[in-house]
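Consider one such protein record:
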Amino acid sequence: MIRRPPRSTPKPSSAASDVYKRQLIEETAELGWVARMQISVDQGNFLTTLVKAIRPKFAVEIGTFTGFSSISIARGLPENGSLLCCDISEKWTAIARTYWERAGLNDKIELVLAPAMETLDNLPEDTEIDFAFIDADKGNYKNYYEAVLSRLSDHGMIVIDNVLWSGRVTLDSAVDEDTRSIKDFNSHIRNDDRVTCTMLSVGDGVSLIQKK
């Protein structure tokens, strides 16, 4: 989730959004302050590129909001791929459902309205996750990460959003709960010898994580 003022017209530096994404950005901007939770256009294009390269059969998104990131992920899925979206807001995901249908992606996406940890715990034991995008409540980042990592396939990837948090993670003076949670999470990943991690300054910062 990106901490920046909402904007009515996207100004991407990479490939332009299609008409449905542009409409979604404009409708989300009308929500006001919460619109800043939408990922940037560049991040959306980046997610599509990653998914096309990995070709996951099963992808998971934790934190769907109005659907921009899920459309970006679903657009990159192979023919036999599917995306499970985890969110708790019926109001915001109702917008996402509308745009999934307009974009012709309904058959690729399943939405479960429930706490994400509950949804992940209820997956069949032998379920492998090939791609995961985590962009939800920061206090649960470690919990989401551990739950996904336990099911991550050998070629899978976890993408974590907001790891730079508008630069606040570099400030000793930033002691609010979300900033402390992200700092703690970044430290956890840095010291996790089970994985390799690359942090990129795309959008509000993303970390790409894979098993060693």
Summary: The CA atoms of residues 48 and 76 lie 5 Å apart.
